[in-house]
Amino acid sequence: MRFGILGTTRAWDADGVEVPLGGPARRALLALLLVRPGEIVTQDRLIDLLYGDRSPKNAQHALHSQVSRLRGDGIPVELTAAGYRLDAAPGDIDAGRFLCLAEAGRTALGTGGDPVRAAGLLREALALWRGPALADLDPVHGAPLEERRLAALEDRIEAGLRTGEHRSVIPELGELVEHHPLRERLRGQLMRALRADGRQAEALMLYEDTRRLLAEELGADPSPDLAALHQSLLRGDPSPSAPEPEAPEVRVARPLPGRLTSFVGREADVAEVASLLATARLVTLLGPGGAGKSRLAVELARDRPDAVLVELAPLGPGADLARAVLSALGVREDALLGGPAMGRAGESEAVTRLVGVLALAIWSAREGS
Fold this sequence. Notes:
By secondary structure, the protein is mainly alpha-helical. The protein folds into four domains: 1-163, Winged helix-like DNA-binding domain superfamily/Winged helix DNA-binding domain (Arc Repressor Mutant, subunit A, Orthogonal Bundle), CATH 1.10.10.10; 183-248, no CATH class; 255-307, no CATH class; 309-369, no CATH class. It has helices at 24-35, 43-51, 59-72, 94-108, 115-126, 139-162, 166-179, 184-196, 200-218, 224-235, 267-279, 293-301, 321-329, 344-368, and strands spanning 2-4, 10-12, 40-41, 77-79, 84-86.
């Protein structure tokens, strides 16, 4: 016979015909015996798990009656001196097959393994699920299997990341993170998928959200693995888990102005400001109009390949400074503001927050170099 506990309890005979199991009490009894196939479960434990505080007056008789009905359906339940035992091999139960396939998938995913084969095994394992594990019992009984299911999902997503499927797993990861907000592996996978899709700014924002959530909910810092991924993002390391992504749709950063005249006699100013930039996060050039502040800044930027020029002169009073900075940086604004329906206040908050994250990334990378 074959049995199913990854959902409601079900049974099929040798010909593949489903066996009717009757009411919830009988399905729950079979599920309890299937959790540990081949092992003896005492009568007292079965009565406690089946009935709890609502145990009938003659609980042993009620239990024996349910067992007899299962036997009448051809289900091999044995009575021993210590209790009841179901004669079934792990391979006869969907949960046993799931665990075997999930473990094989994880092994195939190991260092130097085969992510394509791993993905196939893990998909086959996850396809066995029809609903919540041990759905006819209290959810606490199914919790270990649900944890293994989530781990298999993470492994299958990991296989996808390693084979370049980062874009296709982003929506699924977003939903999983929403339902399991404290699960760091999922958050790390989403950060990696975003990076591989050219969305580093969103990945950095996700890390900041994670750091804050862990501090608020658990009083803990991100794991070393997540912190290392964050540092890798700050350094701008290429994604190791996916092939070169397609060029993201970004605005082209404004190039530095060309030299229209020579720039001589200000070597001391250039050296002084360069020295200040090596030790300070912000250097402001002051002077009367026409003194050459902008020209000095541009000349300093020529020696910095990551420098970006933000033209502020054309901006009038009340202009959106944050938006101008984002445009110069080439950030995909539409993907970060929540869509066109977002109100002005929400838009300003999102842009300002992003600018803060980008500033953190730029200066942290400089300090780590």
